């Protein structure tokens, strides 16, 4: 797929700036497009409703976490035609993340490397944003732990975030797979995962009663490590009462890359992740059976990749790096054919 001519021009302009500056600029432009009512003229929402964890999505194409970490651009992002968006990762306390530069482009590979480290303004800020937005679509909220919270106390952070966002969330994602928070991925190991999820599910049960509202919880998994371990993590999560899986987060692998930026530390996303994520989605579907919702994330750069994910067993897909390289028309193109 080639990006539309207007987006090619915009991308050329944005790529003149350092990646993080370009990202902020793109978000400001989006907001401008929303308030001036331009976005819906260019980006008509495709209506192809699907049911995912008893929620009706207008279409199966979502925005992946990390694009709008604080929930500052919810209405603007929904106006691009997404069936759902996932905001966050949010942590209880605000934190600065890793030193800049921490986001790198690999245009030759249609990829990005990031080591942002959960830079965010904290859950109080997000709740304010959720209260003030129009909420004209499905909003998932991706939660994590602060870098300073020891792993043994991680559940406190996740539970605090759950309690604060529950009333506003259409679904909640438990992120235990970012490579940029030290030790986070250890939470995928069966014993630690069981402790963490038992505590979260107990809190979920309370919140369901308190708000008289059932919010689905999903776990987002890493593409790295042993496949067998990953499949066991997914099975464990489902057995404990988790409603679905997002596969996958970014990878620390650099297989197939041939540019100097590949030496940067962090998580790789985009084209270079596609094959790995696709394989994992297929394996997850075989392991979990047909009933468990799987949202595919990783390398959704064109319609063909999204269709391959669907055929491998994904119920819905999320895009991030594809949006950077191909622009928002990718959303409609995938939604029409999925
Ligand atoms: C700059 C950047 C920041 C990200 N931040 C988060 C995050 O905060 N939480 C999360 O779960 N995933 C985060 N991700 C991962 C994406 O949500 C997505 O899972 C991953 O990039 C693979 O999809 P893609 O190939 O379409 O980009 C981030 C990705 C990028 C590129």
Structure commentary:
- With 338 residues, the chain is α/β, with parallel strands linked by helices.
- It has a single domain (5-337), classed as Alpha-Beta Barrel (TIM Barrel).
- The protein is built from 12 helices and 13 strands.
- The protein has an 8-stranded parallel barrel with strand order 3-4-7-8-9-10-12-13, surrounded by 5 helices.
- Strand 1 and strand 2 (55-57) form a beta hairpin.
- Helix 8 (227-239) crosses helix 9 (271-288).
- It is globular and about 50 Å long.
- The relative contact order is 0.15.
- The model has no long low-confidence stretch (mean pLDDT 97).
- Residues 64-66, 69, 89, 103, 112, 114, 116, 118, 142, 175, 178, 220, 249-250, 269-270, 273, 297-300, 319-322 line the site of flavin mononucleotide.
Please give the structural blueprint.
Layout: H1 5-14, H2 19-35, H3 39-42, E1 50-52, E2 55-57, E3 61-63, H4 74-78, E4 84-90, E5 103-106, E6 111-114, H5 123-132, E7 138-143, H6 154-165, E8 171-175, H7 190-211, E9 217-221, H8 227-239, E10 244-247, E11 267-270, H9 271-288, E12 294-297, H10 303-312, E13 316-319, H11 321-326, H12 329-337
Parallel strand pairs: 3-4, 3-13, 4-7, 7-8, 8-9, 9-10, 10-12, 12-13
Antiparallel strand pairs: 1-2, 5-6, 6-11
């Amino acid at each position: 797929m080639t990006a539309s001519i207007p987006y090619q021009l915009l991308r050329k302009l944005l790529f003149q700036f350092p990646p993080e500056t370009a990202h902020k600029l793109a978000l400001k432009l989006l907001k401008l497009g929303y308030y001036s009512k331009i976005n819906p003229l260019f980006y008509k929402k495709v209506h192809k409703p699907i049911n995912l964890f008893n929620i009706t999505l207008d279409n199966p194409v979502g925005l992946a976490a990390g694009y709008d970490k604080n929930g500052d651009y919810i209405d603007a992002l929904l106006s691009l035609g997404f069936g759902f968006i996932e905001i966050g990762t949010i942590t209880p306390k605000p934190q600065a993340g890793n030193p800049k530069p921490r986001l790198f482009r690999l245009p030759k590979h249609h990829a990005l490397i990031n080591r942002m480290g959960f830079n965010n303004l904290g859950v109080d800020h997000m709740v304010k944003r959720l209260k003030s937005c129009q909420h004209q679509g499905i909003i998932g909220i991706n939660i994590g732990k602060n870098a300073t919270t020891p792993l043994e106390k991680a559940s406190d952070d996740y539970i605090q975030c759950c309690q604060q966002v529950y009333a506003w969330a259409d679904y909640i994602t438990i992120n235990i797979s970012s490579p940029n928070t030290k030790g986070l991925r250890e939470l995928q190991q069966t014993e630690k995962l069981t402790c963490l999820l038992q505590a979260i599910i107990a809190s979920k049960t309370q919140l369901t009663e308190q708000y008289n509202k059932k919010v689905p919880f999903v776990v987002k998994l890493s593409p790295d490590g042993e496949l067998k371990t990953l499949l066991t993590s997914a099975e464990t999560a489902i057995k404990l009462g988790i409603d679905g899986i997002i596969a996958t987060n970014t990878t620390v692998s650099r297989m197939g890359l041939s540019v100097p930026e590949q030496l940067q530390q962090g998580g790789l996303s985009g084209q270079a992740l596609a094959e790995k994520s696709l394989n994992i989605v297929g394996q997850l579907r075989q392991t979990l059976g047909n009933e468990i919702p799987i949202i595919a994330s990783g390398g959704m750069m064109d319609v063909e990749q999204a269709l391959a994910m669907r055929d491998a067993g994904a119920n819905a897909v999320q895009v991030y790096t594809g949006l950077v390289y191909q622009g928002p028309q990718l959303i409609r193109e995938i939604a029409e054919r999925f």
